[in-house]
Amino acid sequence: MNLQGILAIYIYEMNRSFRTLIQSLVSPVLSTMLYFIVFGSAIGSRMEMIDGVSYGAFIVPGLIMLTVQMQSVANASFGIYFPKFIGTTYELLSAPLSFIEIVIGYVGAAATKSFSIGIIILLTSNLFVHIDIIHPFFMIFFLLITCITFSLLGFIIGIISDNFEQLNIVPMLIITPLVFLGGSFYTINMLPEFWQNIALLNPAVYLISGFRWAFFGIGDVPIMTSVFTILTFTILCVLIIWRIFKTGYKIKT
Amino acid sequence: MNIIVSIKNLKKIYKNNLVAINNLNLDIFEGEIIALLGPNGAGKTTLISTICGLSSISSGSIKVKSFDVVDEYRKTREIIGLVPQELALEPFEKVINSIKFSRRLFGKKNDPIYLDNLLKKLHLFDKKNETIKSLSGGMKRRVLIAKALSHNPKILFLDEPTAGVDVELRKDMWDIIKELKKDGVTIILTTHYIEEAEMIADRIGIINNGDLLLVEEKQSLIKRMSIKTLKVNLKKSIAKIPNKLKSYKLKLDVTGNYFLYNYKTGLEKTGITSLLSDMSSIGMELQDIQTKQTSLEDIFVKIIKD
Ligand SMILES: Nc1ncnc2c1ncn2[C@@H]1O[C@H](COP(=O)(O)OP(=O)(O)O)[C@@H](O)[C@H]1O
Ligand SMILES: [Mg+2]
């Protein structure tokens, strides 16, 4: 195990985000605040309580999920795509590092970043509304595994992409709509029946529901379904990464 | 001499079925500078890439210090440094951070004293805290070398280190390479500048179309292959070469004022003495003689063409 090597990648990636602190931290926090002002305060003041939770508090878990999922994908995909783009992957490949170690370095850094963003959003939300977390440890676990899984997904996208367009297309066309429609701002049973069934096909629904359960003890689907969904997704990403490693796909010539 | 890199029956076929390396065998000796000479597309970069782990091996094997580069890649890569052909560097990073990063990637803890000395040796010390994008091309090339040396490797690969570098910097680069050799580093460099191979290499390998055409000590290569030309200026011009001198295969100039005689320096007898005595026996007087040495370039062109 080349621990120094993993650490080198991890620290390098973390430094890169400190260099671009505004972009990495301030901008997701700021945009969440805007969501919060629009949905939480302006619209929320006209909304009824949902299952005994004020609308302002209700959207907090969804907002965090939405942000960490998109941030994880964006950070991890860019993290590995950039060296490919400027040609510095030669160094990763010629170092005494296994592919798994490279993945740990990049995915670890991307997940750390989005996890921190999630926590910061939680803390800032707390300035607007009072939030009690019923299952704090589960909340941390669920946030962490979501960050890791979506960072794995981002890593895969970064490896496969040949240009910036491809890098953006999957997040833009698939992940953003799924996450937005995943129930960040409403519960599924607020939808007409037909759309409720469609919504249940969206994996993001299960994740947001699970995370909301950690906060308020309520969710659109049973909590075990949410746990099952995220773990399936994690395993799927790990398998794809394993496959990429085995075939040397798009990394080695 | 100890063999430090041993390449056996190496074949590399790219995914588009292009055969870039064709059954190549090569032993590299510890402490030598070997220059791999070949035109663009010959397979030089591919060869380096298979040794360093950037390219998969289609068949055959490569051993570095008796470790297999695929099965025991951690052991082989630990002692290898690679300077790539392209100036691939993260533009926004500081020089020192980039070098620290490289060292740690290779599993070594930061060592400020070693890295400072390295920067000094490469005349980069005053650029230590500059961002890479502010450096000139020659300086960037040095940063790449510093990165490759950051983990103190035993073997250094330099892929076209002086391509696109001006004359002065090229001389600098050669000095750096010679210094490294003194430190005991084995150096494998690729180039398509013959002059470069001639200046610094101990041995020269010539690659073309994925084949290693020959590997030989530079001196003996030049000696063996070298053809010298003797130019004989005559006192009185002649219309044709006399029959007595036919066997020397002389080339008479159209003016009839001089002829050329080719001979190999590697041979015991050059034939010059007998040519001169045969000339005087038929009463030909010479005014002046000159000799011209074939350059490595001529040899290179000849080998590639054959
Ligand atoms: N990734 C690749 N995929 C397919 N063909 C390649 C690849 N890299 C190099 N080649 C081809 O392999 C041959 C050898 O290339 P290369 O090793 O770069 O030569 P050199 O370094 O001697 O100029 C060339 O014909 C080149 O086009
Ligand atoms: Mg090349």
Task: Provide key terms for this protein.
heterodimer; A: 253 residues; mainly alpha; B: 306 residues; alpha/beta; Rossmann fold; Alpha-Beta Plaits; six-stranded mixed β-sheet; four-stranded antiparallel β-sheet; 10 helices; 14 strands; 33% helix; binds adenosine-5'-diphosphate; binds magnesium ion
Textual characterization of the structure:
The complex is a heterodimer of chains A (253) and B (306). By secondary structure, chain A is mainly α. Chain A has one domain. Helix content of chain A is 77%, strand content 0%. Chain A is built from 10 helices and no strands. Chain A is globular, with a radius of gyration of 19 Å. The relative contact order of chain A is 0.14. By secondary structure, chain B is α/β, with parallel strands linked by helices. In chain B, the strands form 3 sheets. Chain B has a 6-stranded mixed β-sheet with strand order 6-7-8-3-9-10, with helices on both faces. Chain B has a 4-stranded antiparallel β-sheet with strand order 2-1-4-5. In chain B, α3 runs parallel beside α5. The model of chain B has no long low-confidence stretch (mean pLDDT 88). Chains A and B meet through α1, α3 and α4 of A and α2 and α3 of B.
Q: Which value, in Å, is the CA radius of gyration of chain B?
A: 25 Å
Helix content of chain B: 25-40%
Label the overall shape of chain A. globular
**Terminus-to-terminus distance of chain B:** 31 Å
Average pLDDT confidence of chain B is 88
CATH topology of the largest domain in chain B: Rossmann fold
From N to C, what is the helix and strand string of chain B? EEEHEEHEHHHEHEHEEHEEEHEH
User: What gross morphology of chain B would you assign?
Assistant: elongated
**Uncertain ranges of chain B:** none
Computed structural class of chain A: mainly alpha
Tell me the span between the first and last alpha carbons of chain A: 25 Å
How many β-strands of chain A, per DSSP?
Answer: 0
Flag low-confidence runs of chain A. none
Largest sheet of chain A: none
Across the major sheet of chain B, the strand order is: 6-7-8-3-9-10
Helix content of chain A: over 70%
At the first level of CATH, what is the class of the largest domain in chain B?
Alpha Beta
Mean pLDDT of chain A: 87
Oligomer: heterodimer
Q: Write out the CATH superfamily name of the largest domain in chain B.
A: P-loop containing nucleotide triphosphate hydrolases
